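REQUEST FORM: STRUCTURE PREDICTION
Request ID: SP-0412
Submitted by: Lab K.M.
Chain count: 1
Length (residues): 436
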Amino acid sequence: MAYKILSLDGGGSWAVIQARVLLDIYGDLNGHELLKKFDLAIANSGGSLVLATLCNNMKLSEIISVFEDEAKRKQVFSKLSFWEKLRWRNIASLTNVLGPKYSMERKMSGLQNVLKPYNSLMTQGKTTKPTLEIALNELPKIIGKPELQLIIVGFDYFRQRATFFRSNASSKTDIFSGGKYYQVSLGHAIHSSSNAPVNYFDAPAEITINQLNGNDIRKTKMWDGAVSGFNNPVLAGLIEAITNNSIPMSDYKILSLGTGTGGQAMIADYQTSSNTEIKAIFDRNEDNKLAFTDYDLTFVSDIKKMSTSILGDPPDSATFIAYSILDPALTNKACLVRINPCIKPVLNPKSLVFEAPDVYKSEPNGQELFIKLMDLDMDAVANEEVALITQLCSKFITQNTVCLPNQLIRGDGNGIHLGDDTYQKAKARWLSCNPI
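STATUS: Completed
RESULT:
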């Protein structure tokens, strides 16, 4: 019997890609109807925001409209005022190079305000509390599938380790706590998971956890789950499923949705090559904006690089390891489908210059639009920034021959080893092993 897992990467405003993909695959379903198609849903950061809206039983079209609403985005990404930047822990942000930009405290109220107009659970009489105040372990029954497992990833500020907020109070992976299940509200789990450090929010998220059927209530602090290495949480989701089920590996069906994989041309490698043809790539691209030429190896740039790299998905690692568990022979037949647009320049073999992909080059100002897209951070807030992501979705999901490539589980320019190189192929693979 198939066991279906939905995995949602982190990525701030870029998580609208996930909603667009789900809408294209399943149509404009309500959140609960979609979640009931899966046995486990795991999410981090921006993906956890999508999961929250699904738990709120919003239609996929409504979820997309939330991500595309600038006023709503600014409630979640509430910029620090000049005076707030003068606080000692925020002072670095005055440089506009390093330091937090947004308020942790206003993010929680912003999340509540964003979902408030869509209080569908209260309207439908499923609960008397706002969705974000519902304990995570109570949600599966409200959704209409008690056996559904929901997992949201955070990072414990004090213990300095990953925290998995689970709806399953009897999870075997949590047995080492001595059976003491600590519940947390959906809102606090989302608040934790979406609280990126250093260059984004100004403080760890403050949340409350309490022991189920006990008298232990605690307050603690959390950072984004990406800090613990789970910006792409698919591997954690698979391990959770395996430890709680005794079924063949072939029964697992996993849909892993990303939020855009950046791929600036790493021509630093080419600069030092002893091969004259390879070195020519660096020489031709020395002033090319599409190429990586930043050699500013200062202390500040190192901090910035490390603080942002934790929010990225190391190429293919999470999905590749998860795939290897399902199919150690690497036959490319297991139903682990990775859907994630690749945003990277293409090397022109004739001119040895990196250019925008064909899907961008074919339209006016396409090269310029692609450069702007590559420069976008995860916290895209302005309308013109999110418009670039919306355009990306259209160029990725399109059924035309020319489209943005899909992230492979393993493979490169020499061939596909695991996964699918276009969205349409990945969608077809998912539907072939999970007919709607």
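NOTES: The first helix runs from residue 16 to 26.
Reviewed by: T.R.
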